[in-house]
Structure formats: C-alpha cells, structure tokens
Design a protein that fits this description.
It is a single chain. Strand 18 and strand 19 form a beta hairpin. About 15% of the residues lie in helices and about 45% in strands. The strands form five sheets. The protein has a seven-stranded antiparallel sheet with strand order 3-4-5-10-9-8-7, with helices on both faces. The protein has a seven-stranded antiparallel sheet with strand order 14-15-16-20-19-18-17, sandwiched between helices. With about 325 residues, the protein is mainly beta.
Length: about 325
C-alpha cells in the first residue's frame, strides 16, 4: 500500500499547541457512489477511505481527513509552500497549483492541488487536491488523491465543491450532560441529556445509554454500555489481555486501530479503539473501550458508533469515559 505522505514541515512553521481537548470536527460529505471502506492506519489522526471494490495495494482514488489537535499555524499564508516543499522530498518535479482560499472570524482555509508524474521510490503518478482548514482549536487537512499525472477540470470542479460544502461541527463537552448514579453497583457516569439510558440487572451488563433521533431521517447507532465481571485475584493487565483475546473472533473481522494507557479518577486504565462487523446488520462498527479493574471486578465501558462517522463522536465518547466515578 503506497500513500504518499505529504506531511507538513512543522519545524519550519511558527506554531503553538493549545492544551484543551478537541471540541469540534471537520465533516466532509464524501460521494456515496464509491461505497467507501476504511484503510487501517497506524496514525490515529488520519481517517482514510478507498472504494469498497478496490484493494489496499491497488486503488485509483483515495480520500482522507487528518486532524492536528490543538495545532495553530501562525503563518498560515505559507502553508502551500510547506506542502510543496514536503511533496518534493518524494517527487522532485511535483507541481502545486492554488485553487481558492477564504477567511472569516472562525476559520481560514485554502484549496490547492499537487501533481506528480512519479516519485523517487515509485514510478507511478499520484495527484491530490488538498483542503487545509485552520480554526481556533485545530488544523484539518482534507484530501482526495488520484493515481494520475494530472487532475482534470471536471475532477477539480467536483472536488472543490465537495470541500467547500464541508462544515466544522462543534461539540461542547461541558454542556447538556446529566450524571447518572447507580448505588447498587457503586458507580456514576455522565451522558448527554438528550440520550436515553437503562439500568440493567443482567449478570454482567449493568448500564446502557444511546443517542436518540435528531430528526425523522436520523438512524442513531451511537451507544455505550457498562459491564461488570467479578474477577477476584486478578489485575488490570491480565483482564485487558483477556478482553483483547475475546475481541478476536473469526466472525467479527476485528481490526485493532490503537491502544493506550491512561488515568481516570486517579485509576490506571487501558483503552483500545477497534473496528469489527456487526453480526446482525453487517455494518462496520467502530468501538472505543476502556477497561478498569476495581475491587476484584473488571469493568468495561464500550462506546459504539458507525465506522464512517465514529470520529464525529470520539471526543464525546472520551468525555463520557472520563466522567466515570466509582464509590
């Protein structure tokens, strides 16, 4: 799989990194006729798609969004020069053409294309249109890439419209939440006020919450659940490994995207983001799971969304996960 990495030479730019969490996302309506599928990436900032009937090693078109959280570029006017400089590290004869730009009180953006006949380590051509957006919180890069030497006028017009009609979706993690307390299972958690929740009396499953319809056409898929499993004389590391093993069934086609360790309420936790196929609907889903080990009990919070729209809810899921308290 060869995706050329036109990375910013950030060391050459005057930048500052903010410390607050992401409260927004770039939402681009990719053309549905391609029936996109996700390309596994080691870099969690990248969300890349290719047509469903094409392979990771052989494709003709690819789209992607990349989010640089908290990145503010002071000299945004230099962004095209930095992309061209980066492109020429792999393709010395790469050409860049400015398409459009604009700025308002909330954001500024620029559209341009790069065209490359070949690369130092790859004789095949590759050309891209870039949509770079700077907000007060983050830097976003939307890209469409073709395995072609040049981008024709029709392609440029079509994708210029797609990028220009994208929008920044704002999420406020500190507003509109309710705290639910379960005195039987000794935990509390915050969820959006608009969500519905159910306390469960099942052996393991103790709590479910789900997003409700925003309009008549909306089909909510986003939900969370909390499972409590008694595991005396164990520890977080062992229970996390058991959880990962349980994910990897042949039927689910699970792909682990990213794992990590953190603290919630001064407790060490382990988390994982993975995708798998819903056994009932066949849809590809994406999951953010947090594993706790509390008082001889393994507690697993799982946040679920459609693979294609998961990133729009990731900061909300993180907000919910960080709100859990045990008593």
């Amino acid at each position: 799989m060869t995706f050329k990495k036109h990375k910013l030479l950030l060391i050459l730019l005057l930048i500052s990194l903010t410390t607050f969490a992401q409260e927004e996302s770039l939402q681009i309506s990719w053309p549905k006729e391609y029936n996109w599928k996700l390309v596994p990436e080691n870099d969690s900032t990248i969300h890349r798609l290719i047509p469903f009937d094409q392979s990771y090693n052989k494709w003709t078109i690819s789209v992607a969004t990349q989010t640089y959280k908290g990145l503010i570029i002071k000299q945004f006017k230099n962004i095209e020069n930095e992309f061209l400089r980066s492109a020429r590290l792999e393709s010395p004869n790469a050409k860049l053409t400015h398409i459009d730009e604009a700025a308002d009180s909330d954001k500024q953006w620029v559209l341009f294309k790069t065209e490359s006949e070949s690369f130092t380590n790859d004789p095949n051509p590759e050309s891209s249109i870039f949509y770079v957006v700077q907000t007060k919180l983050n830097l976003y890069v939307g890209t469409v890439t073709f395995k072609e030497k040049l981008i024709n006028k029709n392609q440029q017009a079509e994708w210029t419209l797609i990028f220009k009609t994208s929008k920044i979706v704002y999420l406020n993690p500190n507003k509109g939440f309710q705290r639910i307390t379960d005195s039987v299972n000794h935990f509390s958690i915050e969820i959006p006020k608009s969500w519905k929740y159910l306390k469960q009396e099942n052996e393991a499953l103790k709590f479910i919450a789900y997003r409700t319809k925003e309009n008549t056409l909306d089909i909510p898929r986003e939900n969370i659940n909390l499972n409590f499993i008694r595991k005396p004389n164990s520890n977080l590391d062992v229970e996390y490994l058991n959880f990962i093993k349980a994910l990897n069934t042949p039927e689910s086609e699970t792909i682990i995207i990213k794992e990590g360790v953190s603290l919630i309420d001064n407790r060490k936790i382990k988390w994982v983001i993975e995708t798998s196929k819903n056994e009932n609907s066949g849809e590809r889903m994406k999951y953010y799971s947090i594993v706790f080990y509390v008082d001889d009990t393994t507690v697993i919070l799982t946040c679920t969304g459609l693979e294609k729209s998961f990133d729009d809810y990731k900061s909300l899921f993180e907000r919910i996960g960080n709100s859990i308290r045990f008593f």
